[in-house]
Amino acid sequence: MRNGGITLSQLQINHTILEQRFPHVATQINSLPNEDLSIPLFTEPFERDTAWLNAVQGAIGNGKILFVYGFERGLSIVDLLELYPNHWLFVYEPDERLFRKAVTEYDLSLLLGYSNLYWLSVGDSQLDMMFHMLSSYMMEDLVFIALRKYLTDDMSTLREVKEKFQEYRQSFLVDKHTENRFREEWTRNFLYHLSDVLYTPSIERLFHAFEGATVIVVSSGPSLQEDIEWLKKLRPHALIISAGSSIQALIKHGIHPHLAVIMDGHSVNKKIFASSETREQPLLFTSSSYYEISDQNCAGKIHSIMKSDAVSQYFFGLSKEELFISPTETVAGTAIQAAAYLGAKRIILAGQDLSFPDNKFYADGIEHFAAETTDKIVQEAPKKVLNVKGTYNITDESFSLMKDGVENLIKALPRIEFINSTRNGAVIEGAPYEPMEEMYKLLAPESVDHDAIADLINKINIAADMNKVQDVRDKLIATLGDLSNVRSEIAAIHKLMKKIREFSRTKPAKAQSMVESIEQMWGVIANRDWFSPIFESIMPIEIARFDQVLPVIVTEHQLTRKSDLIYEHLGKLLQDITAQIPILEEMFSESIRRLDKKTDSDAVVHKDI
Q: Which spans are transmembrane here (predicted)?
């Protein structure tokens, strides 16, 4: 390998194993234009860099996960793989052209085949993918290693990457705990919404349907009360989208939004949508939202499968790239993304206080939480934030995260003009404050049809694709049946596990055989197409914890220690999976029943027509 030269077959040889092990990298390399491959230059010497390797040895300590920044022609990576066979390497090469040059000029097939080269990413677009994999498998502190080239020339870049990773990991952990908190609710909503999704148009069908419109996204903050009358005046001139619970206040004051958006998966939404009028507005429901609201909606509906919803993506055969709306810290974020997809040129934020002005939590008319609950939250709020009047409001960590989320969305949508018209709310970066009366002057010449979105939904609401309906139903039935198989397979693994620790100390050959059998049997369970989407949804923390200890199990060569790890960690995970199977069987049975009911109902409607 160290004497590699240019041959026509090198790229083909390397590409074959890239497609097998790291298909995302193969795709990325294929997408690069055919250019002069001599432009990026290797600086990595052919001889072993002993001084650098000594420095690496001092940095590694007890860490099992190594994040290596840089690939070059792979020489230093081979050294690390050979010197540290019990560690997992996650390698990131920022210069995709340099990587393309390496796989074109050198036979890297042996390197790329190393089992402890666990992950490879190239280019800026794959950095977050690398962060996700690192966050999934890290148990303790990460060992960060950079090739000498980057240590010499790019120390500021390395610091930025480390900071970005820390931010990503913090967000990853928050997301995991959020998923864990709502895991059963969300999984149920994902599955129960399958039938409605099949019979309603998606937000993706409405791309730029209102090109150039002004959209007012209405949230539930206390400032909304002061702008209700202005919203009444503005309704004929701009699309009004209610985010979550704000629909209560709008309906109470006689304002019918053009579209109501629901993202939250909790049953508290039954209180929010308790009145018949709230259920008669056109509805955008996400696949994570509480399923009964979509069930009860009397008007037109559109759906959004979230990028975070792996369950629906599996059953519909979709990829994240085909979906538009990402999860955010607040339903206002969902409404903002919907407005952007509809083609808004301008988004006005109303009731987006992101704090507690005058010690108030909600606008009048928002009544789904008891006053004592919200009063306690306000009284205990530990932070302050600058408001649009130049003074300060009290706030808390939850609202701070929501504020960050809204501001990140604004940055991600640079072609849209954002205006914050929340009269007493927090300053929102990227959305200068303008009061509603000024917005009325600006928008008076514009007009929007009274039932603009309802009419559009009715226009595009075509019959369901019955082949897709049958395909989803078949997958549901097959998965439901396979859950029973998994239960039996887990029981067989538990039977082997009962003796594994004892045999590892008294009959090592037998124990080694048992370890191999258990690993193979677990692989059969975990490699099912539906396993990750379903179980990472219903038990995210348990799966994440096992993923973090997996490198330790895989790289452990001492039989007694390996047996103990398998018994303790895989054994616990299998118990947790077994406990979830009856809950999932009930959910799947109900999802199939709902789909059959929907299909029968639709058949009757079309027969009458």
A: none
